[in-house]
Design a protein that fits this description.
This protein is α/β, with parallel strands linked by helices. It contains 18 helices and 16 strands. Helix 2 runs antiparallel to helix 12, helix 8 runs parallel beside helix 9 and helix 17 runs parallel beside helix 18. The longest helix has 18 residues. It is elongated. It binds 3-methyl-2-oxobutanoic acid (KIV) and zinc ion. Zinc ion (ZN) binds next to loops.
Length: 535
């Protein structure tokens, strides 16, 4: 790999290696392959595919990625041991741009307690490792594990030796997330001065034990780093690694300050983050920068008022620029009349002043009772009815049974009231209770929803906690959300499903022709409850 342009920072993604090896984040080989394609689309420079000697699963996923994924350089990790290095080289055989990433611990603590080796032995092993890797391929990266707790002179000595042996990327991991921005910046400046060769690319690899991984990586860039190792959503060992979405967005938004840029297609950050969440089941906290659900949500009345006049008042970047559809004005008890009027307008209501006052009063008393007021509630208020009486589909009854043995199938039956007042009942089986429930709802309404996200969280505490189900449904390019709250999470899920359906109806997204044929329930033949083989 040629050295990068002076202002280009290479993004080395290690989600599939350092990220995947952390608890709760494991992925199948097929998922890793799919995610590697997503990383290539995102525009990362290097994908670390795995640590092949550590498991057969890592090795086979790396082989599959090397066969299929084109664009980024593909790296595989190896200790400075011949077997590790040969295995890593083998799995990358079909890659068109392979890289061997060899590492050894360099800090006094690791030398003594982990390796039982002295400095000279570590130095010799590092040189042998890099030389062996170079015999197998041109692109070799050397990492000095626990570099930030290594004597700076020894660190410079081993990096210089690795460069002499043929490594052109010199990675300086803060393995235990111990450093600070000022310290790591000074270390990179020191190392750059000791190894001044133009084609030596210094790399930062920061862990987040003190919550400083992104700040430290940015400081390393200020000190001369031209590669950053990071993961999507910041997943990784213990508190995680540097979060790619935060790092690249900081570089973009503050480009004039850092004078550095990456090749990342920022609009793919949120979709890639969501893909990872879906694959691992590990969700990001709501207030996580860039990709958290609240990252562009505003609830306080003053903020909402400002946002409606000029988004720059409370936002430093456009949500669309990182892949969100738009900022979310969350209506709750802190919201003001301006935000309510704006949301009513979006929902197609344009009340007169007096009518708006009336709706606002009703909205305020509802908001005192509910944590968040959803679009369906607002529509109901605007229609002059309370939420439960809003026109549309309504859930009347629901029964769900689940099973784990071979002879029981998760099954759901539902009874709904249709928008024209008729009743319909349906049942279906599925892979699990929620799948069966959604299948039964689809049968009853005749509408299949393309569910893109589903989450249940508790909104109160205690044994009788209320669960809130949030559903994201995709219709073409647009996303619609639905919410439901109940002490029974399956009922909450059904309410969320129906909430989206009703929203789609009101917005005219569901064609009349798509609507199911409804017959009143008192006509016995119309009560269609049947068990189906699969849903
Ligand atoms: O944190 C670390 O030191 C690592 C190295 C193996 C690069 O992940
Ligand atoms: Zn690491």
């Amino acid at each position: 790999m040629n050295p990068p342009a002076p202002d280009h920072v290479r993004i080395f993604d290690t989600t599939l290696r350092d990220g995947e090896q952390s608890p709760g984040c494991s992925m199948t080989a097929a998922q890793k392959l799919r995610f590697a394609h997503a990383l290539a689309d995102l525009g990362v420079d290097i994908i670390e595919t795995g640590f092949p000697i550590s498991s057969d699963a890592d090795a086979s996923a790396s082989v599959a990625i090397a066969r299929e994924v084109r664009g980024p350089t593909l790296a595989a990790l190896a200790r400075c041991h011949p077997d590790d290095i040969d295995t890593a080289a083998r799995v990358l055989e079909s890659a068109d741009k392979p890289r061997l990433h060899v590492f050894i611990s360099t800090s006094p603590l690791h030398r003594e307690h982990k390796l039982g080796m002295d400095r000279e032995q570590v130095l010799a092993r590092a040189i042998e490792g890099v030389q062996r890797a170079r015999q197998l391929m041109d692109d070799v990266e050397f990492s000095a594990e626990d570099a930030l707790r290594t004597e700076p002179d020894f660190l410079a000595e081993i990096c210089a030796a690795a460069y002499e042996a043929g490594a052109r990327t010199l990675n300086i991991p803060d393995t235990v997330g111990y450093t600070t921005p000022a310290e790591i910046r000074a270390l990179f400046e020191f190392l750059r001065a000791r190894i001044p060769q133009e084609d030596a690319v210094f790399s930062a690899h920061c862990h987040d034990d003190l919550g400083l991984a992104v700040a430290n990586s940015l400081a390393a860039i200020e000190g001369g780093a031209r590669q950053v190792e990071c993961t999507i959503n910041g997943i990784g060992e213990r508190a995680g690694n540097c979060a790619m979405e935060e790092l690249v967005t900081a570089l973009r938004v503050r480009e004039a300050f850092f004078s550095a840029r990456t090749g990342i297609d920022s609009r793919r950050l949120v979709p890639t983050s969501r893909l990872l969440t879906r694959m691992t089941g590990m969700s990001v906290q709501r207030n996580k920068a860039i990709v958290g659900a609240n990252a562009f949500a505003h609830e306080s009345g003053i903020h909402q008022h400002g946002m409606l006049r000029h988004p720059g008042t409370y936002e430093i970047l456009e949500p669309e620029s990182v892949g969100w559809s738009k900022s979310q004005i969350v209506l709750g008890r802190h919201s003001g009349r301006a935000a309510l009027a704006d949301r009513l307008g979006e929902l197609g209501f344009h009340p007169e002043e007096a009518q708006l006052n009336q709706i606002f009063g009703a909205f305020k008393s509802l908001a005192e009772k509910k944590r968040e007021v959803f679009d369906a509630d607002i529509e109901a208020l605007a229609l002059g009815a309370d939420a439960s009486a809003a026109s549309g589909w309504r859930l009347l009854r629901l029964h769900v049974s689940t099973g784990v043995s071979d002879d029981t199938l998760p099954t759901a039956s539902v009874e709904l009231q249709s928008p024209d007042g008729g009743r319909i009942a349906e049942a279906a089986t599925g892979d699990g209770p929620v799948h069966a429930l959604f299948a039964a709802l689809a049968r009853a309404t005749g509408v299949e929803l393309d569910v893109d996200g589903y989450q249940v969280s508790s909104v109160t505490t205690g044994d009788d906690a209320q669960g809130q189900a949030n559903l994201v449904v995709r219709v073409g390019e647009a996303e619609y959300t639905g919410n439901g709250t109940s002490t029974d999470i399956l009922e909450a899920s059904a309410l969320a499903w129906i909430d989206v359906l009703n929203r789609l109806r009101r917005r005219g997204e569901i064609e009349v022709a798509d609507a199911p044929r409804i017959t009143p329930i008192n006509d016995a033949s119309a009560t269609r409850v049947r068990r189906v083989a699969s849903a």
